[in-house]
Amino acid sequence: MKNIEDYKHQLETLREEFRERIIALDKDLHHTEEPVEKDFSEQATQLENSDVLNALDDEARSAIIQIDNALFRISNDSFGICEACGKPINEDRLQAIPYASLCIKCAEAG
Ligand SMILES: [Zn+2]
Fold it and tell me: Ligand 1 mean position to 110 CA, how many Å?
């Protein structure tokens, strides 16, 4: 298995990336200094864009929660163990998603 310290480092790096993404998205979402567009089609486009930005923002926030959870599991020696069935999570899966809390079987079932 890959060194736990490597996963920890990877998780901390990812956490920082998502945090920066949220800060950037929040700036885009709350650019209040700009006047509100009067034109309807422009307004619709702006609305669509903010939906996309909101979705990305939600995604980044939930990833951070999962990363914190994974860091907690590293600290109490349960990292890499599926939260549903208690079996080890496949290492390929952990390398792709270091904050995965479920094995591939449980993730697909859930
Ligand atoms: Zn499982």
Answer: 10
Q: Give 104's pLDDT tier (boundaries 50, 70, 90).
A: very high
Token pair, residue 70, equals 């994974």
| Angle subtended at Cα 55 by Cα 52 and Cα 56, rounded to the nearest 5 degrees | 90
- How close is the Cα of 95 to the center of ligand 1, in Å? 17
pTM of structure: 0.79
Using the mean position of ligand 1's atoms as its centre, give its distance from the Cα of residue 107 in Å.
Answer: 7
From 21-30, 35-44, 75-84, the region with the lowest mean pLDDT: 35-44
